[in-house]
Structures are given as structure tokens and as C-alpha cells.
């Protein structure tokens, strides 16, 4: 069974891990819709349409709003 030859100190461990950094994703603005998105990725606009490279891929389904009339029949 494998085991470490010697204990790694906190300082040595932390010095090794200084190179592990989180980077912010690169963002671009679409010239067609004006949406901010990651490059080379499909993205949705505020209406729900799916775009890639400035071209419409999938159009969002139409939302039909039904109005309900209140019928209060109180005697």
C-alpha cells in the first residue's frame, strides 16, 4: 500500500497550490441582439430565442395569455 515518504508541510502544500487560480470567463456582445454571452456558445436572449454566432437557431414558442373573467354571483 502506498504511503508518503515524508509529511508535506502546510507552507509547501500552499506554495504548490498558488498556481491554481479561478479565471473569469471571456464575454462578448452579440452584434445582432446585443446580448452578452460566452464566445462559441449558443445563448438565449430575453425573449427565449436560441442564437449561435448571431443566427437564430430555435425560436421560442409563443406564450398565449388566457384572461379569466371574474363572475361573482353573490345573492
TrEMBL record:
It comes from Neolewinella aquimaris. Residues 1-42 are annotated as: Disordered. GO terms for molecular function: structural constituent of ribosome. InterPro entries: Ribosomal_bL32, Ribosomal_bL32_bact, Ribosomal_zn-bd. This is Large ribosomal subunit protein bL32. Belongs to the bacterial ribosomal protein bL32 family. Keywords: Ribonucleoprotein, Ribosomal protein. SUPFAM superfamilies: Zn-binding ribosomal proteins. The gene is rpmF. GO terms for biological process: translation. Pfam families: Ribosomal_L32p (PF01783).
